[in-house]
Amino acid sequence: MVREATLEDAHAIQNLICFYSEDGKMLFRTLQEIEQSVADFLVYEMNDEIVGICSLKFGWDRLVEIRSLGVDPRYQRQGIATQMIQGSVERALLRDDCDTAFVLTYAVPLFTRFGFEVVDKMQLPQKVWNDCKACLHEENCDETAMSLSLLPLKKLPLAKPTALKDPEEVLYS
Length: 173
Ligand SMILES: CC(C)(COP(=O)(O)OP(=O)(O)OC[C@H]1O[C@@H](n2cnc3c(N)ncnc32)[C@H](O)[C@@H]1OP(=O)(O)O)[C@@H](O)C(=O)NCCC(=O)NCCS
Hints:
The structure is a single chain. This protein is α+β, with helices and mostly antiparallel strands. It has one domain (2-155): Aminopeptidase (3-Layer(aba) Sandwich). It has five helices and seven strands, in the order βααβββαβαββα. It has helices at residues 10-21, 31-36, 80-93, 108-112, 151-155; strands spanning 2-4, 41-46, 49-60, 63-71, 100-105, 117-118, 144-149. The protein has a seven-stranded mixed sheet with strand order 1-2-3-4-5-7-6, sandwiched between helices. The chain is globular. The chain starts with a strand and ends in an 18-residue tail after the last helix.
């Protein structure tokens, strides 16, 4: 089940972030940073355990970044990240202060299913790169930038992303 994170989830969130930051798949965050921004996180809870995390960073002009997406290796390829992206896009659609979602990712097909398209990293505002100073890869970023315009979706009163197993199917209805 995808749900909004609470302060009690902070340690579990940090465990997953630490695990994936060791090989540079995710930016390291201190426990304090996570506690301060816990409202930005969604978690996937299964049998009272947090097995997936994802956060939304608003405030990049009218962009929102989907970041810190990670799923416990024991539970991958079961659609958990798909559900977390769906929850994130739904959350972003409720906001008035963003028009476009973006992500820097190693899992392009995962986001393509939701209509994200590959964009030139240089199109992203310069301040996005401040975070990159803390990344192991820094100047040699090997992630792909992808973005999704939220505007057409916001105009549809019943617009909701629908995570589907078949990538050929229409993803929004
Ligand atoms: C990337 C990650 C979040 C995917 O989580 P997941 O729950 O396994 O993803 P899903 O089960 O929802 O995957 C759905 C589809 O996305 C694609 N996909 C999933 N993981 C992928 C990956 N690592 N690379 C490329 N495509 C991927 C596949 O098409 C998959 O469909 P399939 O299982 O039918 O082949 C997970 O592998 C992870 O935590 N990786 C390490 C952290 C990381 O790289 N985070 C950055 C992501 S922005």
